[in-house]
Every structure is written in C-alpha cells, then in structure tokens.
C-alpha cells in the first residue's frame, strides 16, 4: 500500500512538472511560430507562463531586497548577450541591457517608436510625450523646450525655488521627526505646480497632489482594472486629475474671453498660447496630458533623487565636506549686493553636479523605458556574446514586438561601472562615459524634456542644505521598496538639524 501511494505521488509530481514544462512553452509556440524562419534569430530568453509571462518573476524580484536578481537570472542562464526575449506587460518583449544595444534602440527613431504599457499610456496620457509619434513628439518638444529648460526660464525659476527651499528647511528643522521623503515630495510638487499652475490657489494644488500619489503607484503596475489593484486606483485618480485641470482650463479661457485674465503667465498659459509654424494650437487633451506628465515626473523624480543625494552625502562625511566646501566658496565670491543664487553660480557647482549624476546612476529612478519595433530590426551581437543561439552574427527584433531599454542594468553593470553599488561622485573625475553607458534621462530625440529643470531643482536644495543643515535618520538600516521608485520603507524618517553656526 505504501509503495502504491509513493508511486502515485511520483506520478502526480511528474505530471505537474510535465504540465509546467508545457505551459512554459505556450507563449513561445504562439508568438514564435508565426515568425517563420526569423524565430531562429531571436535572442535567447524565457517567455514565462501564458498571459502572465515573466511578470511574477519581475514583481517578485522588485519586491525583494535584490531587484537586480530578475535580469541577473537571464544573464546566468544565457550569458551576457545584452539582449533577451521575454513576455512582459502582456506582450512579447525584447529586453536590451548593455550600452551598445540600448544606444541603438534609443537613437533609431525610424525603426523604434514608443511602446509603453497600456497602464502607463492610459494614466499619463496618449497625447503626452510618451505616447505620440516621432513627428508629434518633435513638434511638442520644440514648443515646450524654452519655457521648461531654457536659460531664461531657469533663471526665473531659481528665485522661487530658492525661496521655497529655504522656507521648507527652516520649517522642517522645527518639526522634529518627519518623513523626509514625504516632505520633499510635497516641496517638489509645490515647485513644479508653481511653474505650471502658479495662478491657482492652495485648494487646487492640494487636490492635485493627493491624486498624483495614487496615479504614480499604478504607472508600472499590471493593467488590472479591478477594485483593490493599484491600476484601478490610479485610473480613478487620473479621471479626477483630468477633471481638475479641465476645470482650470475652462476657467482661464472664460476669463480671457471676458477680459479678466491675469497678467502673470505660467506654463498652462504658455501651452494655451503655443502655435507651431502652421498656426496649429494644442487642444485641451494635449494640454492636459502634457501637464499630467510634467507634474508627475517633475515632483516624483526630483523628490526621490533629492532625498537620496542628501542621504548619501550625510552617510559619507568626506563627500559631504567636499560638496559643502564648494558651496561655501561660491557664497564667498558673491558680490555684497547679490541676493540668492544665480544661474552662473549653479553652473560653477562642478562637484555637486557629480554628486547629482552619481545619485541618478545609483538610484535609477527611471529603471526602464519602452519602445516598439516598427520593422524587423537586426541587433549585432556583442563580441563576448555566444554564437550558440543562431548561426548569424546578429539577433532579430521582430516587427511589432515591444522593446525594453534597461537603464538600471547598464548603471549597475560592473563591466560598465566598477563597484556599481558604491556611491562615489569622484568616479566622474575626468571620466566621460561611452555612448549608452549613462542614461538617467534616456537618450536621443526622446530624452527627458525636463532634465535641466530637475537637476537645477535638486542642486538648489543641496546648496542650502549643505550650507546650513544636517540629516539624522531614525532608522538608517530600515528595509527598501523598489516599486514604483526605490525608497526606504519608512519614507526616510529623520530629523533635519540646523547647524549651530550656519554658513549662510
């Protein structure tokens, strides 16, 4: 009897193993057989289970203490090819993970278009930068470049950013324990909202800030529109955001028609006035989607990077003192009649710029971007790529397949950046990374449109913090969360202490 039970158990286990093996082949059979001979030129990889694909592995890794284990598993199994097939966000996908392949995808607008997941497109907006065609992207970028990143615009923003940062630091130093990240996100949202919607009152700003938190948690979630899931909550937040911004648009348009518009203009006014060479203006959907994208990226990324730069500096006294000394020298050289920072002084912050660059590399706020192959694309194998997978010297990305460009893997690759987990701003001394080796804001025509504004904002905060304050974390060894962005579980619970003898 015991032998029979044991035999049945073996049979059951073997059956499950066989069934699992069959299920693991379903995606490959379904998507690869239609490729014909091209399937033999696909990169190596694993397309996971039906429908789910590799998403459970991805989520499991990024909810653990080792998010890099997801891609490392591909490298261990298939070698450092720099390109792998997978099934992500409901689509057959090619993941590119090293500088050479990342650069080729990002720079080639003729063969690669936007390919963001449904959840991201629905939440950020189909008419925002991430969803539109190359020509529309070029047009919209040209219209918005100067008001966001232009030297004149940055000079104007500096005064407000400085004033807001000084006030916030003074307030936090009197509050005792605070969630440093939460307060920074409020600060960066206040700044970006002022730039885009300065004419609106506090109630509108508070409503927008509340909905953005829910929106951001759903941007990289699976598109499951069921109560309880992050995507469902984010969709509801998106609807509220659209309603708020549409109301502001309608009000401004009505005031203009009645002659009651305010003289002071912000980014929303600029977007309403913009015309291209043919006289075409942005419609309401385009304006709202651009605002949603900028407001979301403008405070989430800046808030998180500012927190990590502060934490890294405070944790490394040598780097802290070097950055502080640079800021003190800038203040010493300032004419007596000058009040506050200038754009010229900001551009003299050589070491602080390296601190920000290194923080962007280590933290990887934008860990991956999404493209889609517009035609069959050949990707040359890198020299140390094995030739066991195909007889040719290149892999093929099939037309219509999604392509993920993994910035995180590039930045954390020891063959690209030695000791990649170590925060070391001095690694940038006299070092110019090869093309594709440093991608915090992407590359090519779809480079992040607010990159200069983001770095300015972060640097201004660090300038005033280094001169006058220090950070004391309450739980410096607390755990981490990596989705949607890397952050401490306690949101960096800390005290901001004012120096007894401030430098400014």
From TrEMBL:
Its needed co-factors are: heme
Which of this chain's residues are annotated to bind heme?
448
Q: Write down any Gene Ontology CC term.
A: endoplasmic reticulum
Supply the PANTHER family for this chain: CYTOCHROME P450 26 (PTHR24286), ENT-KAURENOIC ACID OXIDASE 2 (PTHR24286:SF356)
Q: Name one GO molecular function term.
A: iron ion binding
Q: Which Gene3D superfamilies match?
A: Cytochrome P450
Q: Which GO terms describe its biological process?
A: brassinosteroid biosynthetic process; brassinosteroid homeostasis; gibberellin biosynthetic process; secondary metabolite biosynthetic process; sterol metabolic process
Transmembrane as a keyword of this entry, yes or no, is: yes
The text of the family note is: Belongs to the cytochrome P450 family.
User: What protein is this chain from?
Assistant: Ent-kaurenoic acid oxidase
Is Chaperone a UniProt keyword of this protein?
no
Q: In which pathway does it act?
A: Plant hormone biosynthesis; gibberellin biosynthesis; Hormone biosynthesis
- Record the organism: Kingdonia uniflora
InterPro entries tied to this protein:
Cyt_P450, Cyt_P450_CS, Cyt_P450_E_grp-I, Cyt_P450_sf
Please list every transmembrane segment annotated in the UniProt record, as residue ranges. Answer: 6-23
Q: Which keywords does this Swiss-Prot/TrEMBL entry list?
A: Heme, Iron, Membrane, Metal-binding, Monooxygenase, Oxidoreductase, Transmembrane, Transmembrane helix
Which CDD domains does this chain map to? CYP90-like
